[in-house]
Amino acid sequence: MIFDKKAELNVLINLAASDKTVADRESKLIQTIAKANGISKEEVDQLLSNPQPIGSINSLTNDEKFEHLYFLIQLMKMDGQVFRSEIVFCEHIAEKLGFKKGVVAEVSQHVYSDPSITADRDMVKQKAIKYLKA
């Protein structure tokens, strides 16, 4: 799968807004993550005001949930710095995807800031799936 930063940012925005609103803290973190990934404030503002639909979160397969989680963590680590607020945000989004919070720490161990460095995704996916809520 090709890593499309803007498309994954749109997913992140949709996930943040899945409770019908994007809180100020969520918006600021999305802006921070976008800036670290070379996406302009104007582009983010446009996505925030008019996010492209991704479909129902409930209709995502476990594989799709994992892919979004993986890319979310990759976006978070892209700038080489990870702040506690970003981790908390990722845990929040992971929960919206149906995972327990601990999945962020588990998957983060195997995701690198450089997208060209890849972990054994099948192994990481198997670890992540164990964190899905029943």
TrEMBL record:
InterPro entries: TerB-like. It comes from the Bacteria. SUPFAM superfamilies: TerB-like. It comes from Ohtaekwangia koreensis. This is Tellurite resistance protein TerB.
